Amino acid sequence: MSDDIIDHAAEPPPLNGDQTPPPAPRRDRPPLIELAEKAGFAFSDPTDEDLLADHARRWTSRAILVATLLLAALNSPSIQTWATTLPPTWGSQTIDDLAEVWTSRLEQLGLDQPRTVIHDHYGAFQQLGWRDVLRTLRVRRAPDRNPTPHR
Amino acid sequence: MLFPTMIFGLFFLVVYASTWSLNRENERRKQFLLLASWVFYAWWDWRFVGLLIASALLNWFVAKRIGESEDRNTRHRLVAIGVVINLIILGFFKYYGFFVEQFGEMLKLAGWERDLPLMHVILPIGISFFTFQGMSYVIDVHRGKCPKAHSLLDVMLLMSFFPHLVAGPIVRASDLLPQFAKAPKLSREMAAHGLLLIAWGLFKKTVIASELATGLVDPVFFDPTAYGAGDLVGAAYGYAVQIYCDFSAYSDIAIGVAALLGYRFPRNFDQPYRSRSLQEFWRRWHISLSNWLRDYLYVPLGGNRGGLVRTCINLMITMLLGGLWHGAAWTFIAWGAIHGTALIIERVWWSAIRKPDWPRMSPVWGVLITFNVVCLAWILFRSDSFATAMAYLEGLGRLTAPTLITPFILSLIVGGLALHALPPRAIERTASWLCRVPSPAAGLTIGLLILLVEAVRPAGVAPFIYFQF
């Protein structure tokens, strides 16, 4: 008895005459199903597993695309460095020229700044000697004993 | 083609886009991946692509005949032929010069000095890895642990698949062939894990390992007599961090790249320097090799089934051959001997000397002792000769102020060791968070992490240490 109730409850409302059910809104229909309907592909409807994998693949591709674009914009000196290491041919010279233009344009926009700031701070850290570290520690322990350079 | 280079980045983007566009046609997908793997290998030296193909053909043919044969003796003969031919290939390219040289020395000692046919044989990159992989396939088919591959394409791809081709992990046929049987499916968690492993690997290789190599380890090991105890001790610990960050970075990037293409590789490192014993160390260091040596060498020798003495002999043989696998030099064999001896001491201590009612040693002492034994062995591993290693050990008594241990170098060593104090499976946990965020945010996170690495890494990149093995 309870199965009947469940079955009936799950049925869609009856249709009047030739009326066909309206297609699901575009955003609710998985793209693979849509594609299969349009092209009449021979393969069967994708399973949930396929759809999940399809979603995951698109998620991954978008993430890789965003990361690539971000690096192309903020890490242009690396592209130029790489271009200069290529063996000298017509192709590599073209890549080198393009990389140079790309880097200079991004520098004008100030997009090289995040990389430069990190690079400079890291470079300063690399150059630190033990005396610098000890001096910094002393200043932190007894700040009032060390006059500021401006005095 | 090295992983942390622009050219590999471009290569990977092309491979990623092409393989997923072929996802509905698994055979074409695999064909494309095989071609891409050959391009990857040919980038270094195209002549050895033929060797890779020949090796795959050999293993495919032998495994096919084993799978078809009903007769036990025939199967035994076939597996023996397969293993011997693989060893001959490996022996010729990797050990020919070494063995001829040693043979010449022996003749000299015996008073029969002769001009032996010395040749300079170029060592094909990754030969130790793909040969071991081929052997494991043949042996697993013989043992019935793995069915023979459906096609030659599968075996070719198993041995040539570019993420693991040149420096592992040694992926077993039983792990990879079932994955080749159908088009792989990607999950968000797998992708997030892969992306994080790539960024993490780039950091370990290009920042920690490269800086330690150029700033400390290479100069000290080049001429240990020029440095005092402080630098020598620092360089030994520095090399321990460098080789871990270098090799585990390669494995991480390989696992990450494979994951983005839809394939799962086994873990190859598990915070090895937090091991409390040498036995534990070998369960955490280069796991795919130690499992290989256990399953195809130690266990067939008898393992621990023949009593304590027999177990110790088997341990020593396994570690000596494990050392020789790393390179054709006595220093590698001595490295294996140190590990073998330490494992034997542990085994004898636990099974014959230690009484059950004795108090247990603190785990911290276990970690410290194990780490220092491993570092001592690394000195032999890194030295280009016994003379250099002895000069290094002698220098440990020369008490002078360190000259190369700057705050920056020290922070790299401490930071590299502190990676072992991270919670286990930290990357996996971060991946389970990352996979829940929208893709642009995930892309930004990964992009910023790589940007951070790019901003601090030195220009250029040295080849991975394990390329030479």
Would you write up a description of this structure?
The complex is a heterodimer of chains A (151) and B (469). Chain A is mainly alpha-helical and 151 residues long. The radius of gyration of chain A is 31 Å and the shape is flat. Chain A has seven helices and no strands. Chain B is mainly alpha-helical and 469 residues long. Chain B is 71% helix and 0% strand. In chain B, helix 3 (49-68) packs across helix 4, helix 3 packs parallel to helix 5 and helix 4 packs antiparallel against helix 5. Chain A binds chain B through residues 43, 49-50, 52-53, 55-71, 74-75, 78-79, 81-82, 114-115, 118-119, 122, 125-130, 132-133, and chain B through 5-7, 13, 16-17, 20, 23-24, 185-188, 190-191, 195, 260, 406-408, 439-440, 442-444, 446-448, 450-452, 454-456, 459.
Strand content of chain B: under 5%
The H/E string of chain A reads: HHHHHHH
Q: Assign an overall shape of chain A.
A: flat
Main interface by residue count: A-B, 41 and 35 residues
Structural class of chain B: mainly alpha
Tell me the structural class of chain A: mainly alpha
Instruction: Report the mean per-residue pLDDT of chain B as an integer.
Output: 89
What's the β-strand tally of chain B?
Answer: 0
Count up the helices of chain A. 7
Question: How would you sum up the major sheet of chain B?
Answer: none
Q: Mean pLDDT across all residues of chain A, rounded? A: 74
User: How helical, in percent, are the residues of chain A?
Assistant: 55-70%
Strand content range of chain A: under 5%
- Overall, the morphology of chain B is globular
SSE layout and pairing:
The complex is a heterodimer of chains A (151) and B (469).
Chain A: H1 2-10, H2 31-39, H3 48-74, H4 76-85, H5 90-108, H6 113-127, H7 130-141
Helix pairs in contact in A: 4-5
Chain B: H1 6-21, H2 26-45, H3 49-68, H4 72-109, H5 127-143, H6 152-160, H7 162-165, H8 173-180, H9 188-222, H10 229-260, H11 278-284, H12 287-301, H13 307-326, H14 330-353, H15 363-382, H16 386-395, H17 407-418, H18 426-434, H19 439-456
Helix pairs in contact in B: 1-2, 2-6, 3-4, 3-5, 3-6, 4-5, 9-10, 9-17, 9-18, 9-19, 10-15, 10-17, 12-13, 13-14, 14-15
